[in-house]
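Could you please consider the sequence and fold following this short note?
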Amino acid sequence: MRRAALVVAWALVTCALAAGCADEPEDSCVTPPPEDCTPLYAPTFDNVFANTLSQSCGLGGSACHAMAGAKGGLVLDEPDRAYEALLDGRVSPGDPGCSRLMARLEATGDDGMPPGSQLGQAERCAVAAWIRDGAAR
């Protein structure tokens, strides 16, 4: 009995540390907006947070990533917390196409974010340019 409990615990820890657990779909690389796209705003983290993350994800819009919702364990209601959470496996600095954030913003249907309607091209361009430029704070 004790051995079975250890096996289950090991499996849960392994799943939590590995990409692609059953509760979280594995995102693959996508084609982000092209480098020559025109961003909606200057691609800095402060602008990405103020114009996109807080408006569409954390505070306004669907608010899936507000403290109360925290979908996927992600809270985007405060800039410092949002930045740390994004750089903890959701954004690959320099590589928007293989960043989980960009994969979700580029997706449509049930996997797309925000739910119900994709962000406009210029807004996705700003997020991709921020990531492409190194995702600096």
The chain has a mean pLDDT of 78. Residues 25-132 form one domain. The first helix runs from residue 2 to 17.
